[in-house]
Amino acid sequence: MTEKEIISIGKNILDIESSGIKKLKSSLDKNFARAVILLLNNEKKVIFTGLGKSGYIARKISSSFTSTGISSIYLHPSEASHGDLGIIERDDILILVSNSGETKEIFDILDFAKYRDIKIISITSNSSSTISRNSFITLKLPKYKEADKLGIVPTTSTTMCLALGDALCCTVLNYR
Fold it and tell me: What is the CA radius of gyration of the chain?
C-alpha cells in the first residue's frame, strides 16, 4: 500500500460518485418542477421520513429546509407507528426517502397520509415501488454504481439523494 495507491482509490471513488451526480442532473424532469411548485405553494410544514441511511439523508434535507425558513421536521418511521403519526396535519407535505421504495416501516405513514389526503413526494430509485406508486410526485434517482469495492455500501445512492434534496431546497429558496 502506497500513498499513490491510496490517493488513486480515493479519486476513483469520487469519480464514481461524480458520475452519479451527473446522471442525476441529466435526469431532472417535470416531476422536479412539480415538486418545487408544490413546496412553494405549501403553507404548512414539510415532513421528511426515511429509515437507515435514507433516514439520515432525510434528516439532513429537513434541516436544510428549516435553515431556509421553511417549516420542516423529520419523522422517524418506528416512532410514527407508535403514536407520532399525529404530527401529520392536513395540507402538510410528506417527503418519503427510500432507495428501494419498499421500506415496510414507512408503510404505516404512507397509509395514514393517503387516508388524510396528504400530498406525498417520494425520492427513490424504484419508480414501480409501493412508495412510488402511492405518491403524488416521484423523484427518481437514476441508475448508479455504488462506489465501494463490493458495490453494496450506500455511497453514490446517498450522495445523489442528498444532492437532490439540496437542489429541491435551494430551488424553492430561489423563488421565495
Answer: 17
